[in-house]
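Ticket #4471: structure output looks truncated?

Reporter: J.K.
Steps to reproduce: submitted the chain below (542 residues) through the standard prediction queue, then opened the result file.
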Amino acid sequence: MFGSSFIVLALFGLHVWAATVTVNWNLEYLNISRDGFSTWPAVSVNGQIPIPPVYVTQGDVLSLNVHNSLDKPVSIHAHGLFMRNSSYYDGVGMVTECGIPPGSSYTYFIETREQAGTYIIHGHYAVEIADGLRAPFIILDKGKPAVNYDKELLLTLEDWGRQPEAEHLSHLQSLPSDKIPLDFKTGLVSGINGNYSAPFTVARSTRYRLRILNIGLDHPFKFRIPGHKMQVIEADGVNVEPLEVDGLNIAPGQRYSVLLKTFDSDSFNYIFNATMVADFTPVVKGLNPRYYIGAIEYRKDAPFKSMPLVSDNDLVWADEFDMVPLNKQKLLPVDRVIELEKRSKLMEYGLPLMGLGDTPHEPALVPTLLSALSMGDLASESAIYGPQSTVYVLDYQESIELVIRNPALRSHHMHIHSRVFQIVERGPLGNATAAGEPVIAVHRAGKYPMQRDTMMLPEFSYIKIRFKADRPGAVTPFQCHTGHAARGMLVVFLEAPRLLQKYQRVPQQLLDNCRKMNVKVSGNGAGNSGYNLTGLPPATYF
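Returned output as attached by the reporter:
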């Protein structure tokens, strides 16, 4: 399954020797009960679920050979990886590739020269991430890490439904929109029902790097270890000055590394708390929130330390506005402001469509990347992709500020592909209040704003983030990292498409997969020339 060799990478003419780590994934169904309540065909890799973590060292190239033994197309996304000059490995179905049809394969070459840290690999064609197609992706530091530690621990958090997500959504879509039932999933900790998770065995007087990932679809978690302080040292692959906190709020797609210093005595064991919150449904005792505890085991026969109950309001929780990145990148200037707003359209039946502008994102007939490569000068015209492709064309080196508003009673977890963004501001919308108090206070970045690739957008609030369009030719989705992306809450930033045509050449394997799926590999969003979008289904407007 794993191998090592050497290859030569050509990036803008720069030849770099790098070790290749080869991993083979065969995707197949496996009937399994992960929550202890329901058994159904989840997506496994090589007959295993949870899928084992993938480890490489910074500078390696991951050669991920994926064979699709499922009965539907699939694609694989390396969440948090930059994909410089290789958008065709970003794995977004009908945006950066057509997908891998049943019985076919695709090899993703994922280069890690620029990055180390904690990431995720997951499905990104439809909602197969919810069915188990998700795994930690750890890029180890090549040299000395930014903070010294003795050992590592890895903990995953995820939500898990009672049936395959497509079946669940199909059922909901068959119901009148005012009869949609409340949805309560089970929380998994390190792959199993959080109530039965295995203990973490630790040694006395040891500094641990604890990597904590929310690899689920919809639900945030709160995580803490009562009696222990944690120091945040990494968020989404960005190293930060050590920040002491009591706990973490972790949205789907977010990752943290914390430094955990164990006590000198092994007289007691301790518990950890993982609380899963469905903030889009009412509080229901025993169902929402859902509380899970696990063990930090110093000694197998030691008693558990009794800890006083403390209100969340009296604890220090990690917040991006308290974090200082070690790279000390100054606040970017602004060349262009793009305003986005969460919108939805309630249909007579089923769940509402969602979007970040006038229309929800819906797949065109040609993947955005292939349209951009084949349309010459017209590739710089957003109109040729079709309104439902929700494409914004950016100039090379343009500094962008995104203002994203959420006038809804639930949070969204906003993720950008192929880069990190600077976190500039967060605040309430207008006079939005909850129980007579502002939902959140206004926070503004200091001299060195925190950077990450996934950020929570609270209810009735806005965030401002900035990034520089310094990846010529990048096809960069920006989305809610939940099932909402599949319902339209996604836009695509297309950076300097004429440079894309100069520097990127799509692998033949990708084109072959498109043809197997009867998807056109050139032309505008409808597969035609010029501005002729005949054949493209009409867009939905809010």
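Triage note (M.O.): checked the attachment and the full token line is present. The radius of gyration is 23 Å.
Status: closed, working as intended.
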